[in-house]
């Protein structure tokens, strides 16, 4: 059984200007210990998808359709109380900016203990032992002493490690990490990527790694889901998608990377801009920017499965397999 | 223009604020057109008759018309006096508010832009002044300058510019750090242009909010001074003086002389404050939906 | 003499303490009173028509150096000369020949000014166009950066990030600069938009014969567009040379580690992504390590590195590097 099974998730925001369909038909499954990379540009719905999984979508947004099954239990429609019980224990989240998630007035030890006690009583000694164990696991030197430190006494990279340790406290089945290395320097990012890869292997926690950076996601994820305008347009094993992208958007994204061109030459560019989710044209949302688009693309393609992978396109790169 | 329309659409959604705005506009119109509306010119001492003094609402006086809100100790028609009083209050409030806005905003933005010694000097003076109650400062100044509209406005400006300076300084220091100011300086553009064309327009929203509130404060401050007998001459009664005039009769059942001007004052000030609150909420992105 | 020469520039940031903080510091509270050397004795040269990439991690001083070259910040010591003329006199910028494109196009355009006016105001103020011809002048630049000239009447919030960056580029170029400073101009843009702006930059640079200083933390972008690159670490330049050569054989241990730490897609190899983290973290700029700033993280550090700061020196292969043992590092 999959740890997480998301079917046709739709999260819409009902704003003054109109309905923003931030997530509009997202499906994927996550196996135990698997790392799924959720890739997309700003406005693709990747972050809202992450928030939806934890039941953290605030009004005017709400999940209007679809199903999220975590360890077999349906989360959509579950009461806030029941959701809170699962949050942290079965599924937890790591955010882009750890400063925003850590309380500046409390020591790391106090915060970790509060996180532990959120799901039942824990003795003070047990709390310290568990916290120390996790800080050590995420690579924080002299963890016992650091329990008494405040968030501002940590560097950006170390703070993100603390956030990861807190997310791991209850050994959840799934961790959703929303661009956790975007705010960090490349050398620190590389350290965290290494740590995460080892942790996922060791603890069996499944990981959803949300990012706009293909190279970063690919260094971790065994599978990728590429999002565009609120939909998953391509999904499959990382290597297959990178070496042989089928959706024109994925192909364009990979081809536009500076590393893919001779220095000084023009880059392959995707024309146009990301569409406004308020006024999406009917049919394939990528069609206006797509060189493959035809008459057929005025109706919307669904994600069709082809073996281990799938794509939502009538004219995939490399043709339709027999 | 589009921004303005969207602002108005959002404003309209708050019924209370809309009602308050209607009240403010209505009261302002009544005050502006007071000479056309009122049955009597309360400043014309020759038109007053002591025979009509302290009459209750509904009394038909020697002028042959009904005193809807009664008369004051000088025999003035209270409704006329209130409308003329509102006229003075709004005049003084607006004038003092706008002059204080201009001076305060200039000082605050200058301090934020120049930095260093100039900033120290201006802001320390402003902070020092903010630590005194405005009423105290105004009292001393009016006592020193003497009576009259210009003096009163001067005292109110001196008591209130510091609020504008603080607000402008706060807005300007946060705007100044933004890249668009740096881009303008890096072009390079003359400092006067950077300040007037870039810094100032981006500091206006908080200033507008403070301005609405401070106009209301000017009005109440003026009323307070007049109540204490330090405002305008007796020949030009403002709302504060009307309240003050009626005060000795409060306990003798002739409530109307004080109460009606008081009600007019409260309605105006509360309405302006509600409008100001709504504008503030709309400018505050954190309260935005 | 080089077209742009940065001559022994140092930029310090003293702490600006409020009165309260000064008193607190006097009473022994833990208030930072030390100055930071954001840029420490940097000497650089850029030839006409060439692009220099300035790379390094946050806090290395690359943005501060860019702002000093752009004439936004005055150097504490040293001077920046363009064609032999100083860019600044005292704290005032005295040339329009250097212009800047900023990182965040959402912050670098005045939200209350029509974009056409924003592009026109500099050229009008400096007599590059008459007020009467300004609209036409602006339309020309709009077309040049791939924007519809009719959009000049709009406000910044009506544009996407990529379009705003085009406007910011038009604003800088409308001043007809000889030197363009680009401070992370694509860092805040979406991946699919980045390529558009990079291509635009390549076209404009070629057509206008621009000399550029391109500041970026994204090494793949620097490799793509820069002729030469300088790597900074804690205010100092640790390596400088031809971009391709630096990538192929980095001379400084920090450059080597930095290049290795970036995840890079290798689509034709066995493994998909290659990267190796650097050990440790960047030390506090308030209290940089003695000797070579990189020594605590450097696997090759020796006693000399902890005692003596290495000077940036010319290596036999034409590279500049600030490492005592640049010639003796093991290969790989």
TrEMBL record, chain A:
InterPro entries: AAA+_ATPase, ABC_Ni/Peptide_Import, ABC_transporter-like_ATP-bd, ABC_transporter-like_CS, Oligopep_ABC_C, P-loop_NTPase
Locations listed in the record: Cell inner membrane
GO function terms (MF aspect): ATP binding; ATP hydrolysis activity
Keywords: ATP-binding, Cell membrane, Membrane, Nucleotide-binding, Transport
Pfam families in the record: ABC_tran (PF00005), oligo_HPY (PF08352)
Any GO BP annotation: peptide transport
Keyword Cell membrane among record annotations: yes
Chief site of localization: membrane
The keyword Membrane is annotated on this UniProt entry: yes
One GO term describing the cellular component: plasma membrane
Family membership: Belongs to the ABC transporter superfamily.
Official protein name in the record: ATP-binding cassette domain-containing protein
Organism: Pseudooceanicola pacificus
Automatic annotation (TrEMBL), chain B:
PROSITE patterns: ABC_TM1
Gene3D superfamilies: MetI-like
Cellular localisation: Cell membrane
Cellular component, GO, one term: plasma membrane
Pfam families registered for this protein in UniProt: BPD_transp_1, OppC_N
Residue ranges annotated for the ABC transmembrane type-1 domain, each copy included: 86-276
Domain of life assignment: Bacteria
A biological process term (GO) from this entry: transmembrane transport
Protein's membrane topology: Multi-pass membrane protein
Alphabetical list of InterPro entries matching this protein: BP-dependent_transpt_permease (IPR050366), MetI-like (IPR000515), MetI-like_sf (IPR035906), OppC_N (IPR025966)
UniProt keyword annotation of Transmembrane helix present: yes
Record keyword Metal-binding present: no
Keywords from the named record: Cell membrane, Membrane, Transmembrane, Transmembrane helix, Transport
Transmembrane regions: 16-37, 88-113, 125-146, 152-169, 255-276
Main location class: membrane
Signal peptide: none
Record family assignment: Belongs to the binding-protein-dependent transport system permease family.
Name of protein: ABC transporter permease subunit
Source organism (scientific name): Pseudooceanicola pacificus
From TrEMBL, chain C:
Any one GO cellular component localisation term in the record: plasma membrane
Record protein name field: ATP-binding cassette domain-containing protein
Topological relation to the membrane, as annotated: Peripheral membrane protein
Subcellular compartments: Cell inner membrane
Record-linked PROSITE patterns: ABC_TRANSPORTER_1 (PS00211), ABC_TRANSPORTER_2 (PS50893)
Domain ABC transporter intervals: 4-259
InterPro entries listed in its UniProt record: AAA+_ATPase, ABC_transp_ATP-bind, ABC_transporter-like_ATP-bd, ABC_transporter-like_CS, Oligopep_ABC_C, P-loop_NTPase
GO biological process, one term: peptide transport
Main subcellular location: membrane
SMART domains membership: AAA
Record's keyword terms, sorted: ATP-binding, Nucleotide-binding, Transport
Pfam families assigned: ABC_tran, oligo_HPY
GO MF term (any one): ATP hydrolysis activity
Family: Belongs to the ABC transporter superfamily.
